[in-house]
User: Fold this.
Amino acid sequence: MSRTRVHNFSVSLDGFATGEGLSIEEPFGHAGHRLHEWFTTTRAFRAMQGAPGGSMGVDNAYAAQHGPGIGAEIMGAGKFGPPGWQDDDDWTGWWGPNPPFHTPTFVLTHRPRPSLEMEGGTTFHFLDATPADALATAREAAEGQDVRIGGGPSMVRDFLAAGLIDHLHVVIVPILLGRGVRLWDGLEALEQDYQVESVSTPSGVTHLTFSR
Amino acid sequence: MSRTRVHNFSVSLDGFATGEGLSIEEPFGHAGHRLHEWFTTTRAFRAMQGAPGGSMGVDNAYAAQHGPGIGAEIMGAGKFGPPGWQDDDDWTGWWGPNPPFHTPTFVLTHRPRPSLEMEGGTTFHFLDATPADALATAREAAEGQDVRIGGGPSMVRDFLAAGLIDHLHVVIVPILLGRGVRLWDGLEALEQDYQVESVSTPSGVTHLTFSR
Assistant:
């Protein structure tokens, strides 16, 4: 059965998944790259970039779950580009000609545009839809495989609140951002619907999985 | 040298150290006892209650750091009693005739009252003072030993913001409270002043220590 999964979703100790002041130069605002260092140093991430090397411990074991079994991704408008990308007809995402998705990829936006076929199997489709409707569309495109919910924090929260997520992998990075966009707001008692597991790793982060 | 320490301070995954709706029946509001189950099942906690048994693993090893080397505690008004205790001249705290502090214990309140000498070495003193002034008073009373900052969340946050804490032990409990009083607000970049360590334990919680 096709499941809905979130992977490698990093938050600060105070719960922010992105900082303040997002721009084309600073995709995560004042958070910089600090939330994702545990990930970008793994072998799994480096392999996605076509680079050799990288860590092969437990952080890598989690990181490597990102791709296998995924047939489509849904992402929020805030992940696809910096604020205002909807006004730029030439914007094709952050990732160059060959994005690391390699599946149909649905971008939630109130201003849809024509689909974009990229290299490597990624096609961006633009949807103005509720989480449940977007998931139905993505699931069909996934042809029986799982659907990844790609972030940012507001849309992950919306999908969680709607009860649509089957597997949530969150990584707590021990920094205090103080401001930005929170993941956990409005999700009281979420844990009651899941089996929860925590493990801290030598890099200093803590991996949390919520599974059902 | 005398240090200032916080121990066994539990927060939910969304950062709340206490729930909403605090009362004499529900000291932690809708959080109930869920934030403290990891602690109350340890041998160290049970020994403080004069009870036998309890777990002896890593949760207990952390729990047992609470007492040794402490010469005084400072707590916030919200820890000493339920909302409105200041109007009850007979209120002597939650803990009965022999409270588990066994040292001079300073209660921060805008409405000080005469000191209360309890059994077992605990004397409650009531102070209307800034964090720095309260710490100076408590440190003198501690006679060279360390001072414990006992909570609740607002006063721990105030002491952290004032740079007064040398050792912070926070326990992340994987539940989502959704509402209550947060620990981490307004502490951006706190980690830069500390060495930070995280460890998840078989009970499902994650212990974080900030030390300098």
